[in-house]
Amino acid sequence: MRNPIFAAAAAVAMAGGTATAEQITILGPWLGPDQENVEAVLAAFAEASGHDVRYAGSDSFEQQIMVDAEAGSAPNVAVFPQPGLAADMASRGFLTPLADGTGDWVRENYAAGQSWVDLGTYADENGADQLFGFFYKVDVKSLVWYVPENFEDAGYEVPETMEELKALTDQIVADGETPWCIGLGSGGATGWPATDWVEDLMLRTQAPEVYDAWVANDLPFNDPKVVAAIEEFGAFARNDAYVAGGSGVVASTDFRDSPKGLFSSPPQCYLHRQASFIPAFFPDGTVVGEDADFFYFPAYSEKQLGNPVLGAGTVWAITNDSEGARDLIEFLKDPLSHEIWMARKGFLTPHKGVNPDAFGDPTLRKMNEILLAATTFRFDGSDLMPGAVGAGSFWTGMVDYAGGANAEDVADAIQDSWDAIK
Fold first, then answer.
1. Helix (H, G, I), strand (E, B) or coil at 80
2. What are the helix (H) ranges across 264-406?
3. Res 19 pLDDT > 70
4. What pLDDT band is residue 156 in, cutting at 50, 70 and 90?
5. Could you tell me which residues are beta bridge partners of residue 28?
6. pLDDT at position 100 over 70
C-alpha cells in the first residue's frame, strides 16, 4: 500500500495548498470508535500539511452546528449526516462553495458520480445552485441477507434480477417454506424499515428524477407512481405465505428480532432485506461471509433502470472558509484518505480509485463492490423529507398499510400531512 503521508502531501501540493500552517477545526457526528477512525485520517492530513487539525464530535451535531453558525463561530469544516441540513445552511449563506472543478472530479472519480454531485448541490442565499458538499463515508441499504447453508441445502441460487428474486420467493413457497422475515417495530420509530423498502422499490420502478421529485414533494405522495411502489412492498409484506408468522405480525415484530428466523432450525425464513448494520442483531458468534451473507437487492431487468443503490452517508462542507479547509477537501479526493479508514471498520466509499485490498473486513469489501457497481445512488428519502413526514406520517402510514389499510388512502393521508406544514 502507498504511504498515506506522501499521498496526502501530494494531494495538498497539487491543490496549491497553503505554505503556512493553520489551525483547522472540524465538527462532526462521530464519537467513540468512529471518532478514533476519523482522527486517524485527519492525523495523516495534519502530518502531511503541517496544519493543526482539531476534530470535535457531538451527539447533538444538528443543533450545535446551527448554533455555532448563527453565533459566527462555526468550525472550518462540518460533517453533516444528512444533506437536508447542509442544504438549509447553504440557503442561509452559512456554507462556502467548493473549488471550481470539484464537480467534474466527482463525476469522473466516484461511481454514479452525477448522483453525488446532485446530492452535494444546494441553492445558495441567492437561490443559485452550487456544489457545497463532498461525500466521504457512505452506507448501503440495498441488501438482502440469507444463510448460505440454507440456500445450499434447498438448492437455491442468489438471484441477480428482481424477476429472479420474485421467482425464488414463489419457489420457496412451493417447497412448503416461508421466504421472508420482515419486521417494522422500532419503539417510537416503528415503521421506518418499511420506508426503506418503499424507497428501494421507487428506485426500481421509476427513473431517478421521479424519486427526486417525490422526495421534494414536487411529485405528490399520492401520485400513482408512489402508490404503485407502496403496493410493490405490499406484494411481499402483505402476503401471508411470504412472511414468517403471517402478514399480521409484520408491524408488531421488532426489526432487531426479525432476522432471527434465518438462523432457526429448520429456518423460519430464507430472506431478509435490511441495511448493512443488521448483523449487529444476528446471533452471537455469527460470521458474515460464512454463517450469513448478503446480496444486492436487485433491479428489474425489464425496466432497464440500471443498478440503483439506496443508502446514506456524510457530506463534508466548508462552514468557515480558509486555505486549510480547502486543503482538507482536496485531501479527501486522494484514495489514501479513504484507504486509511477502509483498513479499520465501518467505512464504504464510491471512490473508484481506491485499492480494495485496503479493506480490513471482507464483508465491507463486498458491500463496497455493490456501491461501486451502482449506476445511481440515492440518499434515504425519508431522511430528506420534513421530519413531520419522513419521521412521522410516512412511518405511521406504512404501519397502517402493513396492517391492511388501502395504499391510496395511506398515500393521501401522508400527502395531507405534508400539505399541512407548507
1. strand
2. 323-331, 335-342, 362-372, 381-384, 387-388, 394-402
3. no
4. very high
5. 57
6. yes
What is the C-alpha to C-alpha distance for residues 129 and 125, in angstroms, rounded to an integer? 10
Give me 105's grid cell.
472530479
Cα first-last separation, the chain: 52
Amino acid at 88: D
Query: Is 83 buried (19+), middle (13-18) or exposed (0-12) by CB count in 10 A?
Result: buried
Strands (E), 225-332: 272-273, 293-296, 308-318
Strand 293-296 versus strand 143-146 pairing type: antiparallel
Q: Is the C-alpha dihedral spanning 6, 8, 11, 14 positive or negative?
A: negative
What's 212's DSSP letter? H
Are 137 and 273 in contact by the 8 Å Cβ rule? The answer is: no
Main-chain phi, psi angles of 63, to 5 degrees: -75, -40
> What single letter denotes the amino acid at residue 9?
A
State how beta strands 121-123 and 134-140 pair.
unpaired
What is residue 61's predicted lDDT score, i.e. its pLDDT? 95
380: closest CA among 198, 230, 206, 207?
A: 198
Give residue-wise pLDDT tens across range 102-111.
999 999 999 9
Distances (CA, A) of 111 to 203, 328, 377: 17, 21, 9
Q: How far apart are CA 332 and CA 48, in angstroms?
A: 13
The count of other CB atoms within 10 Å of the CB of residue 72 is 7
CA distance 199 to 355: 31
Helices (H) and strands (E) in the chain, counts: 18, 11
pTM summary value: 0.93
Residue 413 burial by Cβ neighbours in a 10 Å radius (0-12, 13-18, 19+): middle
Each residue of 209-239: pLDDT tens digit? 999 999 999 999 999 999 999 999 999 999 9
Instruction: Find out whether 251 and 403 touch, Cβ atoms under 8 Å.
Output: yes
Residues 101-124 have a mean pLDDT of: 98
d(CA 49, CA 19): 8
- The CA radius of gyration of the chain, in Å to the nearest whole number, is 22
Q: Please say whether the beta carbons of 341 and 38 come within 8 A.
A: yes
Q: Show the cell assigned to 195.
A: 420506508
Residue 220, burial from CB neighbour count under 10 angstroms (0-12, 13-18, 19+): middle
Region 70-78 average pLDDT: 98
pLDDT at 18 over 80: no
Q: What is the pLDDT of residues 126-143, one digit of tens each?
A: 999 999 999 999 999 999
